[in-house]
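Researcher: We're teaching a course module on how sequence relates to structure. For the next exercise, students receive a sequence and then see the predicted structure as tokens, so they can try to spot secondary structure elements on their own. Here is the exercise chain.
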Amino acid sequence: MIKIITQILSFTFIYMAIFAIMRFMMLSSLPDTNSNGWGEVFLYGLGHDMRTFSTIFLPIFLCGFLSYLNRFIRLNLSKAYQIFSTIYISIISFIVAIFAFIGYYYYQIYQNKIDMFIFGFKDDDTAALISIIWNDYPVILILLCALVFSIFCGYLNKKILQLKFKKSNQPIWVLIICNIILIYAYAVAMRAHPVYNALRASTYQFSSFKPFNEISTNPIMALSWASKEYKNQANFPYVDINRGKELQKRLFDIFATTKQNPNHAKMHIHFNLMESFGLGLLQEDKAMQKVLLGSLDEHFNSDFVFKRFLPSTNGTIDSLNRILFQSPIINLTSSKFQKQKLPLTPINIYKKAGYRVVFAYAGNAAWYNINYFLKAQGVDEIIDETILMQEYENAKESKHPYGIKDEYMYNKIYEIFNNATKPTLIISLGISNHPPYIHKGKNELNLDLNSSEISRYSTDYKALLNAYSYANNSFGDYLNKVKNSKFKDNIIVAASGDHANREYKFDHKNESAFGISVPFYLYIPQVLQNNIYYDKNRIGSHKDIFPTLYNLSLNNTKYLSMGGRDMLSRPNDTKMEFAMHINVWADNDGIYPISSTQGYRYQNSNTLKNSNDSFELDESKAQFHKLYEEFSYYQLAWRLGLIKQI
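Model: And here is the predicted structure for the students to work with:
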């Protein structure tokens, strides 16, 4: 038993050291230079690691008790145990090394611990992801390091088992007491607390500074939490209709109705969701904005743009689900409801108003089963890379693992509007600003960023910003064509980012909302601008996109609002003036990271940057985000028919 305890303690110490190094590297890469709080990160990290490795070494620990059988039964299992434990520890060592790298790189990309978005590796285009990982990260070096570490730990395990320990001559009752204490200590290690199960997915946060919470977690345990959350999303529990009524009383009505509109169902609508269209450096540097937006810059200056605006989530499919289907379930499109028509979606509302609905995507429409789900929702036509490569001669040359250049998608969209004989809604999704960042314009950007700006990026910033600039410029060129077309007075164009720039690091202390912000852009013909109220500093988020479009284009039409409101109408209820993201929400008073029990006031009324001026939350603000997420699921379950029969 002593040898087995030596094994467990030795390798637990080694593995903890590996993850401590990982945490140090992650903390060092933060743009926040203040090291106050690092001690707690490592302390809580040790707690996470203790839970993880005590669970992993449980089979080894149980083998120690089996060894007591040698005293009563003539068994010689030492050789078999040496083989088993060496193989087991070698495999675990390989996994630990791999997860140390995964945890580090995952945070650099997503600014988050491993979460259920990692299952995009399964649900997304797996081959494309493998290609990107292979090209962008030192895969061979990582595997080699993990293999060497695994061999070293296997060798060390053999050496530990060859150690000679003096046999204990203690009375049997002493051994029994010692083993009871040992079992209790091991149980405490597995729970990270002597009384209750600490450091769970629901209680792991210890700091109001989100990066500290995320970095402290153990990546193996984080994957386990993510797996449970991902599986839970497939359960679709039933809801109580009375709870829905209670939520409406505490929050807001689930429905709203558009105002009177003489242009009812006459305007074409184009909603463009742009890959990684985060504001990033654009908000503070006008010269940089002009360079990175390209031809889109003139439209940003002449049309309606909201910059104090948040995306729904950190992922494309999740944001798309919430915008189009009002679904907080990430895998809805590939779930058991993939063939069920959802009422009250933007697709459904515009179809009832007489619109033809088209979905255009510069990638492959098999992504997350989106093509079949959209057909079930009544979409009339789906355009993807396969069709675009057939219609445009040079499109195939721009193919990368996730799709083709956005310009071909915009060409097709323009063609559809130009030939349309009835009001048409086109929902499009660009892809050019997605890794591996190979799409760029004819003239490569010659950016000369200073060291502080470069440190914002965890990858090759030149390739990333070239792709970003290309995507923006392509949309700008498309808008130029629209504004010079025969249908220029008969179309509304809206655009936003699905989430912030990938691999863009920000100061979580003062930029927890600012750093993830995206723009909401609107081109509106002059004929619709008579009664518009425009406050460019108004706070909003993805939930407000279609309510704004409904009020511009539909007449006296009931819709599912979920707190969304017309961004171009004068505010009439301050409670509705809020922005919602899965990690933070904001209103006119300040921003509220869900990892904090406090709110933070803005630096000024023109930005989403918060100051260090904090304030205590009243009950309504403290519970708002949690209740909103519950309400989001409630309305989806209600539309899916998942109502408890009382």
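Model: If you want an answer key for the exercise: The chain has a mean pLDDT of 88. The first strand starts at residue 255 and ends at 257.
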